[in-house]
Design brief:
Layout: H1 2-6, H2 16-42, H3 72-76, H4 91-110, H5 115-138, H6 143-163, H7 168-196, H8 203-216, H9 221-243, H10 251-264
The structure holds zinc ion.
């Protein structure tokens, strides 16, 4: 069963159109979660635990299920709160649409035949999105969100290792990846700081490097650094042009590199 299962093409667990609809719906729901994560993360409100219902930031009305249907609520209510008619930012439907597109992208790359490889990616996406938004707004990568990506990476590692019946090699590659990615980025950051006399790489970035190392394994270190470096350079130029600031958030470049390798780096299975 195990060997045969991973060889199945896309669409064989359920009929193909049904899988596409389900993944799109999952993407929208995760997109809605991503907006909540970014809203709360920027304000230092915990996203875990229960009891805190979503509310309108203008009139503070607690939102019902009708207000919270991803994308659909925004479209039906024409971008306004049902209670106070205040405008709801386009950022919410945009986030939901982007997350839906990303889920579909990873579905088309991985299919559902090896759920252990792709499901943790789906669930990591809202945290990665929130990290990008929060880093752009506050220049920090909150530990709890980075930790969530780390835990999902651990799940992915164990589930793919069991599916391929080889635990030791991928475990070693992941551990080595985490240590080397984290160590190299920390050393490089220290060196650049010493040479230029300015803070080069925040500790949040170093932690994300280590988490990326765990997900991707040692073999993708060079690619990860190249893509992050080039996209960081582009981001730095745009940032300086827009804000006039020299110091720019590096997290979005790291996350772009991470997501690109997950999508286009070929099979990461041992
Ligand atoms: Zn309102």
């Amino acid at each position: 069963m195990q060997g045969g299962l991973s060889a199945l093409p896309i669409g064989t667990i359920l009929p193909f159109p049904l899988e596409v609809i389900l993944i799109a719906a999952l993407g929208l729901i995760l997109g809605s979660f991503a907006t909540a994560l970014s809203y709360r993360g920027q304000r230092g409100i915990a996203w875990y635990g229960c009891g805190d219902r979503s509310f309108c930031p203008h009139c503070h009305h607690v939102l019902s299920i009708l207000d919270l249907l991803p994308l659909l609520s925004w479209l039906f209510l024409r971008g306004r709160c049902r209670h106070c008619r205040a405008h709801i930012s386009r950022f919410y439907p945009l986030t939901e649409t982007v997350l839906m597109a990303l889920c579909l992208l990873y579905y088309f790359v991985y299919g559902l035949s090896d759920p252990g490889a792709v499901v943790p990616i789906f669930f990591a996406l809202p945290f990665l999105w929130a990290l990008v938004v929060i880093d752009l707004r506050t220049k920090t990568l909150p530990d709890d969100l980075v930790l969530a990506v780390l835990i999902l990476g651990g799940f992915r590692l164990v589930s793919t290792a069991f599916a391929h019946e080889t635990l030791l090699a991928p475990l070693f590659s992941a551990m080595a990846g985490a240590v080397v990615f984290g160590g190299i980025s920390w050393a490089a950051g220290m060196l650049v700081s010493k040479v230029t006399g300015k803070a080069a790489l925040g500790f949040g970035d170093v932690k994300f490097f280590a988490v990326a190392g765990l997900w991707l394994g040692l073999s993708f270190l060079a690619w990860f650094c190249i893509i992050a470096g080039v996209s960081g350079l582009v981001l730095g130029v745009i940032w300086r042009w827009l804000t006039g600031e020299e110091r720019f958030p590096f997290g979005p470049a790291l996350i772009f590199s991470f997501c690109s390798i997950l999508a286009f780096g070929g099979s990461l299975s041992p």
